[in-house]
Amino acid sequence: MTVVGTTVVPTMVQKYQSPIRVYKHPFELVMEAYERRFPTCHLIPMFVDSEVLEETESEDGSVHNVQRRCKLDVDAPRLLKRIAGVDYVYFSQENTLNKRERTLHIESHNETFSNRVIIHELCSYSAHPENEDWTCFEQSASLDIKSFFGFESTVEKIAMKQYASSIKKGKEIIEFYLNQLEEEGISHVPRWTPSLDAPSSSVTTKPVCATPKLLQLELPVTPAVSIPVSTDANDRELADATQSEATSNDVTNQPDDQMENQTGTPDDKLDADYIKRYLGDLTPLQESCLIRLRQWLQESHKGKTLTLTPASPSSPPFQIPKDEHILRFLRARDFNMEKAREILCQSLTWRKQHQVDYLLETWTSPQVLSDYYTGGWHHHDKEGRPLYILRLGQMDTKGLVRALGEESLLRHVLSINEEGLRRCEENTKVFGRPISCWTCLVDLEGLNMRHLWRPGVKALLRIIEVVEANYPETLGRLLILRAPRVFPVLWTLVSPFIDENTRKKFLIYAGNDYQGPGGLLDYIDKEIIPDFLGGECMCEVPEGGLVPKSLYRTAEELENEDISLWTETIYQSASVFKGAPHEVVLEIIDAASVITWDFDVCKGDVVFHLYHSKRAPQPPRKDPLVGQHSSITTPGGNNVQLIDKSWTLGLDYSMVESPLTCKEGESVQGSHVTRWPGFYILQWRFHTMPGSASTNLPRVDDVLASLQVSSHKCKVMYYTEVIGSEDFRTACFDVQSLGSMTSLESSHSGFSQLSHATSNHSQSSSMISR
What we know:
Blueprint: E1 2-4, E2 7-9, E3 12-17, E4 21-23, H1 27-35, E5 47-58, E6 63-72, H2 78-84, E7 89-98, E8 103-110, E9 117-127, E10 135-145, H3 152-183, E11 203-206, H4 236-241, H5 243-248, H6 272-279, H7 284-301, H8 323-332, H9 337-353, H10 359-362, H11 367-372, E12 375-380, E13 386-390, H12 397-404, H13 406-431, E14 438-443, H14 454-470, E15 475-483, H15 487-494, H16 500-503, E16 506-510, H17 555-566, E17 572-577, E18 582-588, E19 594-603, E20 606-613, E21 622-623, E22 628-629, E23 632-634, E24 637-639, E25 654-662, E26 667-673, E27 678-686, H18 700-708, E28 713-723, H19 725-737, E29 747-749
Parallel strand pairs: 13-14, 14-15, 15-16
Antiparallel strand pairs: 1-2, 3-10, 4-10, 5-6, 5-11, 6-7, 7-8, 8-9, 9-10, 12-13, 17-28, 18-27, 19-26, 19-28, 20-25, 20-27, 21-22, 23-24, 26-29
Helix pairs in contact: 1-3, 7-8, 8-9, 13-14
Domain GOLD: 567-722
GO molecular function, one term: RIG-I binding
Domain PRELI/MSF1: 14-186
């Protein structure tokens, strides 16, 4: 926002980032086609005219710089143009062509209303790094509307709509001029070569008659075309499976080593062909949201290290979410990137805390589920989506809850969802088109009042809540068959907990209506309709039946098991309040021990400290700031304070690590090699924004951040461990023997979704880095 006196004027900022687009033509030929867009282009109606203001060239001819002014007739309401007092808007464009490096950099910005609206665009053309006869194109842009006569929202919509349209036309424009060159018999443009007697690249200026500076509002169109080569390194298996298809489509086959999984590397970028092949048809702005959110994840993982410990559980190595998974969260929030990032952060923290990434490998269904849970996977629907069948009417929900408890049922449902994600990937390879969700067929024959048993409904609602939060946009269609009269009662109970977009995917059939027009045959091939629905395909889904009461367990037994199931996590939660930090004490006997930590900042910003004291901290005390004992139990975790306020830093205890400020959503891993025995205290303190100098206005980021921290409360999820020096050296040796190294350095990331172990190892006693 902009602060003017006492008036706060909101600003509206939009950003765009394109995927990599590839022209299957040499750089020089693409440049020849690009130049034909000027001084005007009939394919872009709003591009009225352009003129060269200044043109310079190096003496050896390798660098050519052109500055243009472009005149645009923006498609805006006449009233808005009259209020603004302009008929046309003007842009400045600077092109720098480096023939030696085979690159073209384009920078554009508006002149019209530049004090009210700031539009900035960067584009680049370059020779493909792996195929010198192809050309890559990439662009980014930002729109910052400070004020516009009260029509800020209207101007934003017009600008974004026309910019998105111009991006789509870029492909047609380049293809048009490339075809025109071909018709003229121009299929090759020689590369630039330096003259033997040419001097080094000093620049000379060719004077051009310049006109007075004018103003403008919309970006000139920079052409782009979606003819990509590379596939996303985030999905090597999919890339390998389509190599033969890529050959038939004249797409480069890359060696296997070039398709190695490089998830999390900053240079890992998406190209347009990969998006279309594996993620589907996205609008330019949707592509931009995906790329920007993906870049945020990559940047927050940059420098991430892996800490391995020999004797006890440690932080498991995770990976950045796959592109399909990121896209699901964006779709769930209508491509609002901030909202999508928030729920994605929460979901990734949840996955880490409960080690959901390893669920398929670690979870074994109890025999009761195998015998009496009436659900299972069954081929696919007509669109290639995996098909899951649930015979809910035949399921003894009360018996399953009494025999297993909520937690086992929840974990089983989570394993079904994880298997669904895996099957979507497989079907994407098999059918050659993006498949990111599945179809669920629910048969309600046999549903009665027994299914409305309150604990069973409670378990169902909890499962729905967890699935909705962590597996958005995975349900493509829900077919509910043979719904009895009692179904409206169940629907009334559960429908409020189901997202509106999900409810739109429900198709409900009463009785035998599913056999008629618009029924099951519209969505599932006749050959795979299950036998219990009148088809000929044998279905291996269990028939269910009543769970024997001999398998029932007491409430106390179920309660104890529920706790053990979901406390398998090695992480603990804690709340951090303003004036009430959370502290953990570790007693060290061996002076050469290694303290390790791994924590996620779930809410707010915190400052992490590590202290040493020869004195043992006193038991938790009553803290007047919080109004209760400092060992506080809250819904979000505990708060424990150990450092007595009478202690003096430097006398009673000392700081052994520099303070580390950690932002919301970040994760930190690190270690400290102890020098002395005694008590080491890990502290997470509420981060207070520093006061600004009297001559400076507060930074926008700081103001917004301060507004986001509600009730002066932060939440962290942490894991700590002490490793003996001998064990640590053994762990380092074991990891090195596997070809990787263990790093002691702390590092930041958005989450503990680790991409790879770094090869950075140090023996110093205190190491913290970002």
